[in-house]
């Protein structure tokens, strides 16, 4: 009896002790050191900002990825800001904040508007902040941008033109769908296509200007198809319009009757190509753009690459045909 | 020595120590958490301060542009200073995750201050359009600052998310710890107190038990209490008291026994007196007659007869004396000689008596009629039955602290068994068969033992067929014993 009581008491004692100890350990386990105390790592790298109008699209994700990779490599700090769905107001606000924040360099998707050019010339240049355009360029004269990193859109237009001529057999009507938003890259692409098509007098290019909303693109497509029933090929010079255009064509006729071309800087393009709804696209190298952009920026800031090529640094482009896909 | 008071004090000290320690630990942790909470609140307040002061700056700048007075200007300037102070403080909030944003933030504040400054300057130069332009920019920047404050707060929350959760968990754990600690200490203290109180009360209980036994008259149980405080001292004292009482009781018992022995002895003496009285119906008449006979014999020329009669008379007179009075050894020896003289007349050549007496030893006191019965015993057993008679040797010598008296005969001896019987059978009344005084051997032994208070007063050495030797060892100084035997 006595033994039992002793065993029982010591068991209770042990249990209580165990719980107390575990609780004690738990309390001391939370070694709370505020992250603030960790600070003062003093990253002395350059503060770079990448600003885009099209956040979270596959194209810009790749640009971001490449830029981040290069930033890590060169010890620069990179932050990506941007608006969704080409919201220009937000985009310009980010530009202004970036300039007011006195970052060391801005990589920006070019936007050919007065506000953009004003910000780039007056504010950025006034504060001595270099601006590189990336993927989309703006005219050098208006913007005072230091350089451009991205595809050679003129050459891309030429590639489309050549392919077009080949596919059409040197004759037929081609609709060149452009946006009413006169972006630099768009005009360059158009110039490239038209430059090639000049050599083929039997090919008749028809330039259609559509708005940048889906409805406007659909309306424009309808209109041109009504007006010109014998169109053999479509080129969506602005990739963002391609999906609406293809959808509308598909509604009215067999898609396979047409040769449809575009560029790859829109989220839906790759899918359309895979579904063989398009004949071919120009594939760019977004990752390369990001990487090269950051690299050039850092090198320029360090004074290694001087002077910069004003016309820009071109990244690879290639034609991707639907027939060649597996 | 641990005292009960010391024990209680130490218990209190332990309890106090545990309480204080617990209090300190819990308070320390609470304080630490409080500090952390304060730090966090401080961060948020500082961020908010930037946002608020930038808006305030824009407002006061607007006021100044509306009505350009110097008081408005100083207002705007004090607001600018407030913003700069806030900026200075916020610079300390830098950490890994908000590093970039914070730098932007600080630069934004700089830009705002710059625009404000430019606006004020242009206004001073009366260039109202430029001033308004810069004011608009300042307004936008202030808006951006507010937005970025939110971004920063968001980042802050994200960065500190783990930290905050940790804090919440820790406070929960701390509460749990408090409960567990309370339970553990309560339990331990209860156990300890129980054990401790037992260490005080158990000895008391045992002492009570012992006292109860004692009060029932059981003095022989040993009281032993293993404790290290006053109770143990009490128990020891109590035990000593028990032993003392026990000793006193046994002493009383011994005394009572002695008393009873004395009583018996007195009875014995009376009996021997009675016997001697019985055997001497008219001793005075007999004595007088013997005296007359002696004179008559002397007158008739029978000198030897006359001497014999004198001896008998003397022996008789000695016997008539009170037996309970001690006499000197000298008197005993004189009576012994009278007796021997009488017996020699009776046994003639058969009785040879040799005495070696150290006269210096004869002063000692001795109960009367002690040696004569022993000699008589020797005559009866060693001379009478033998035709050729025998020698009886009587020695008195100084043996240091005692006088040694030896009576030796050459008779048939006594068996070991019988010696033992004589020595052991203390109060058995032996018949004084054939003894002239009617006093037997046993009587003598007992009287001697009582008189000297010693058991080993007499020894008998005997070899069967060779003879017997009776040795008396009389101490010169009488020790304890019963007086007046």
From TrEMBL, chain A:
Domain Periplasmic binding protein: 51-304
This protein's record includes keyword Lipid biosynthesis: no
Signal peptide, first to last residue: none
Xref: Pfam families: Peripla_BP_4
GO cellular component, one term: cell envelope
A Gene Ontology molecular function term of the record: carbohydrate binding
SUPFAM superfamilies registered for this protein in UniProt: Periplasmic binding protein-like I
Keywords per UniProt: Signal
Main location: other
Ribonucleoprotein in keyword set: no
Database matches in InterPro entries: Peripla_BP_I, SBP_2_dom
Domain of life according to the entry: Bacteria
Compartment annotation: Cell envelope
Similarity comment: Belongs to the bacterial solute-binding protein 2 family.
UniProt-recorded name of the protein: Ribose transport system substrate-binding protein
TrEMBL record, chain B:
UniProt keyword list: ATP-binding, Cell membrane, Kinase, Membrane, Nucleotide-binding, Phosphoprotein, Transferase, Transmembrane, Transmembrane helix, Two-component regulatory system
Catalysis: reaction(s): ATP + protein L-histidine = ADP + protein N-phospho-L-histidine
Location(s), subcellular: Cell membrane
Family matches, as SMART domains: HAMP (SM00304), HATPase_c (SM00387)
Claim: Transmembrane is one of the keywords in the record: yes
CDD domains linked: HAMP (cd06225)
Pfam families in UniProt: HAMP, HATPase_c, His_kinase
Main location: membrane
Listed name of the protein: histidine kinase
Source species of the chain: Paenibacillus catalpae
Lineage per the UniProt record: Bacteria, Bacillati, Bacillota, Bacilli, Bacillales
């Amino acid at each position: 009896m006595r033994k039992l009581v002793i065993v029982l008491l010591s068991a209770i004692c042990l249990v209580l002790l165990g719980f107390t100890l575990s609780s004690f350990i738990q309390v001391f386990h939370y070694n709370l050191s505020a992250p603030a105390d960790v600070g003062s790592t003093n990253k002395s790298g350059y503060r770079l900002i990448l600003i885009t109008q099209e956040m979270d699209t596959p194209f810009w994700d790749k640009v971001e990825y490449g830029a981040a990779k290069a930033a890590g490599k060169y010890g620069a700090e990179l932050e990506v800001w941007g608006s969704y769905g080409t919201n220009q107001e937000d985009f310009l606000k980010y530009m202004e904040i970036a300039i007011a924040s006195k970052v060391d360099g801005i990589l920006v998707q070019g936007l050919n508007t007065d506000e953009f050019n004003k910000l780039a010339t007056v504010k950025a240049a006034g504060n001595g902040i270099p601006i590189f355009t990336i993927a989309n360029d703006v005219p050098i004269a208006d913007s005072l941008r230091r350089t451009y990193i991205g595809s050679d859109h003129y050459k891309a237009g030429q590639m489309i033109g050549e392919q077009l001529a080949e596919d059409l057999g040197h004759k037929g009507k081609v609709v060149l769908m452009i946006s009413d938003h006169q972006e630099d890259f768009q005009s360059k692409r158009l110039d490239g296509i038209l430059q090639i098509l000049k050599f083929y007098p039997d090919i008749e290019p028809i330039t259609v200007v559509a708005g940048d909303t889906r409805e406007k693109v659909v309306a424009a497509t309808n209109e041109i198809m009504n007006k010109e029933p014998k169109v053999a090929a479509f080129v969506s010079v602005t990739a963002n319009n391609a999906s609406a255009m293809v959808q509308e064509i598909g509604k009215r006729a067999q898609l396979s009757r047409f040769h449809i071309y575009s560029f790859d800087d829109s989220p839906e393009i790759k899918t359309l190509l895979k579904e063989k709804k398009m004949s071919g696209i120009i594939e760019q190298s977004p990752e390369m753009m990001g990487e090269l952009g950051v690299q050039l920026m850092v090198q320029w800031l360090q004074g290694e690459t001087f002077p910069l090529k004003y016309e820009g640094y071109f990244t690879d482009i290639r034609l991707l045909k639907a027939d060649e896909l597996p | 020595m641990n005292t009960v008071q010391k024990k209680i004090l130490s218990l209190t000290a332990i309890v106090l120590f545990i309480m204080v320690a617990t209090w300190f630990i819990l308070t320390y942790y609470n304080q630490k958490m409080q500090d952390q909470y304060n730090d966090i609140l401080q961060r948020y307040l500082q961020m908010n301060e930037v946002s608020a002061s930038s808006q305030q700056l824009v407002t006061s700048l607007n006021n100044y542009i509306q009505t350009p007075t110097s008081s408005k200007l100083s207002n705007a300037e004090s607001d600018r200073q407030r913003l700069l102070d806030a900026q200075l403080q916020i610079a300390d909030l830098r950490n890994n995750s908000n590093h970039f944003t914070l730098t932007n933030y600080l630069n934004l504040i700089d830009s705002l201050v710059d625009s404000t400054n430019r606006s004020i300057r242009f206004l001073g130069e009366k260039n109202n359009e430029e001033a308004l332009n810069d004011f608009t920019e300042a307004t936008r920047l202030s808006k951006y600052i507010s937005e970025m404050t939110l971004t920063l707060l968001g980042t802050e929350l994200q960065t500190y998310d783990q930290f905050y959760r940790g804090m919440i968990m820790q406070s929960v754990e701390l509460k749990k710890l408090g409960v567990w600690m309370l339970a553990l200490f309560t339990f331990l203290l209860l156990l300890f107190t129980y054990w401790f109180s037992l260490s005080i009360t158990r000895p008391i209980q045992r002492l009570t038990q012992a006292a109860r036994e004692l009060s029932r008259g059981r003095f022989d149980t040993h009281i032993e209490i293993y404790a290290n405080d006053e109770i143990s001292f009490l128990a020891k004292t109590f035990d000593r008291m028990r032993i003392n009482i026990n000793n006193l009781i046994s002493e009383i018992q011994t005394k009572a026994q002695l008393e009873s022995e004395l009583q018996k002895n007195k009875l014995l003496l009376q009996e021997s007196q009675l016997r001697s009285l019985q055997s001497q119906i008219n001793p005075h008449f007999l004595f007088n007659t013997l005296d007359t006979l002696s004179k008559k014999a002397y007158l008739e020329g029978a000198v030897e007869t006359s001497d014999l009669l004198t001896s008998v008379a003397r022996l008789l007179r000695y016997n008539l004396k009170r037996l309970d009075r001690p006499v000197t050894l000298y008197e005993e020896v004189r009576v012994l000689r009278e007796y021997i003289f009488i017996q020699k007349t009776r046994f003639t050549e058969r009785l040879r008596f040799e005495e070696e007496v150290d006269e210096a030893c004869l002063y000692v006191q001795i109960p009367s009629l002690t040696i004569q019965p022993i000699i008589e015993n020797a005559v009866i057993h060693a001379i009478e039955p033998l035709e050729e008679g025998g020698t009886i040797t009587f020695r008195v010598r100084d043996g240091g602290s005692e006088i040694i008296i030896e009576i030796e005969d050459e008779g048939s001896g006594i068996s070991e068994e019988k010696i033992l019987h004589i020595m052991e059978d203390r109060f058995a009344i032996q018949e004084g068969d054939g003894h002239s005084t009617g006093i037997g051997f046993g009587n003598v032994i007992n009287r001697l033992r009582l008189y000297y208070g010693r058991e080993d007063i007499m020894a008998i050495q005997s070899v069967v067929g060779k003879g017997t030797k009776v040795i008396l060892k009389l101490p010169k100084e009488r020790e304890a014993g019963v007086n007046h035997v």
